[in-house]
Amino acid sequence: MIIQILLVDDDAAVRDAVAQTLELADLVPIPAASFVAAKDLITPDFKGIILSDIRMPGRDGFHLLEYAKAQDPDLPVILLTGEGDVPMAVKAMGQGAFGFLEKPCSSSDLLGVIERALHTRSLVLENRRLRVLVETGDPAARMLFGESELAQAMRTRVRRVALLETEVLITGALGTGISKVAEVIHLSSPRSKAPFVKRAGSGMFPEHLAIALDTAKNGSLFIDEISQLPAETQLAVFEYLEGNSDTRILVGSTRNLRQAVEDGTFNSDLFYRIDVTPLRIPSLSERPDDIPILFRHYVAQASEQAGLTPSEITDELSANLMTQDWPGNARSLMSAAMRFVLGMPSDVSEAAELGLSEQMARVERSLLVAALGRHNGRAVEAAEALKLPRKTFYDKLTRYGIRAEDYRR
User: Confidence band (pLDDT; 50, 70, 90) for 222?
Assistant: First the structure.
């Protein structure tokens, strides 16, 4: 969270008074008595905003504004003056000032403008960080978000399987990002410079498979929802895997393929061939701590696309997000972020309207699921981690309809 304010004013009494106001609001003022004293801190990566007086000896606030905009056009500068004439305000705003306030101004007016400026600066710096990650660095780090143990373990697993030449079976619930994980595996592999081709399993017949394999030659072919492949194509994929290595095959499924084999709807030879290197994506319900992180990322993304500055994401909102069910996982959270940016946060605020017992029940369920996810579905270990007697733990699983075996990977 950005809380730094470069405070520039040649009047020591005013500077100290404003600094005290900022400190009482849990902000961090960086006092400077002149443009010269402040100059070295005004850089494109400055993690804060500028609050400056206009009338100062030597280089005034307009010069500071011009200099700041030359260093970083997106750096918010708020100007203060004791002579609040309209022409000066128009000039300041015309030159790109974020805000203009007449001294003396009320604390509420000052802090209101500062809060908006800090929020804008946070979004700008976050979007820049994401752009840098897209252009350089580790594909798993820049495309797969979250700081939970499960998120970190998934990124580690992705990096490891990426270096292998084996086919990979990627599983997860709807909306967990199976195709994105497949793309990250490809981008992290020695085949990253070759084509990455995505095709749906439904309606893909052997002739379509042949075309897709040729298009992805020397690269990777990802087949989404492989359980929906026609029977003859399932056989064709198996035969290809038995005798070729030109194209690496990655497959995804939201269905239980082992059950499909038992039901006779999926080729058993193909299943045991692709199940050699499985990779399961945990649902949001297993890693609730990642929900606010993902939501902030999607809000930053959506606000840039829409050209809008959204409302602040408060701690209360983050807590509410963690208590909600997200049956569509990242896809549902992404939609909620877009509605939040557009000023339609109806789904986002849903949990705030729940009673305390209902919110606590959702939190408890999330903790149970997260513990099972961390311990690979091993109920005894999950119960010990939560410091719960086994019987109590199993009773809670039954109460919430949770099956430990669903979280084994």
Answer: very high
Nearest to 50 by CA among 88, 2, 94, 104: 2
Structural domains in the chain? Answer: 4-134 (3.40.50.2300), 139-280 (3.40.50.300), 354-409 (no CATH)
Name the pTM for this structure: 0.57
> Predicted confidence band at 134 (pLDDT cuts at 50, 70, 90)?
low
List Cβ neighbours of 360 (8 Å cut-off, separation of 6 or more): none
pLDDT at residue 342 greater than cutoff 80: no
134 neighbors 128 (Cβ within 8 angstroms)? no
CA distance 237 to 165: 16
CB 323 within 8 A of CB 351: yes
| Whole-number Å distance between alpha carbons of 277 and 163 | 12
Which among 402, 315, 405 has a CA at the least distance from the CA of 365?
402
Residue in 198, 267, 203 with CA at minimum distance from that of residue 236: 267
φ, ψ for residue 170, nearest 5 deg: -105, 120
| Cα–Cα dist 183/189, whole Å | 10
The string of pLDDT tens digits covering residues 51-91 is 998 888 888 888 999 999 999 999 999 998 876 656 776 77
What average pLDDT does the segment 109-131 reach? 86
Q: Give residue 353's pLDDT.
A: 47
> Is pLDDT of 197 > 90?
yes
CA distance linking residue 389 with residue 76, whole number of Å: 55
Nearest to 158 by CA among 187, 135, 123, 116: 187
- Give dist(CA 230, CA 202) in Å, integer: 7
Region of 346 on the Ramachandran plot (φ > 0 left; ψ -120 to 50 alpha; else beta): alpha
> 19: part of which helix (H) or strand (E)?
helix 12-24
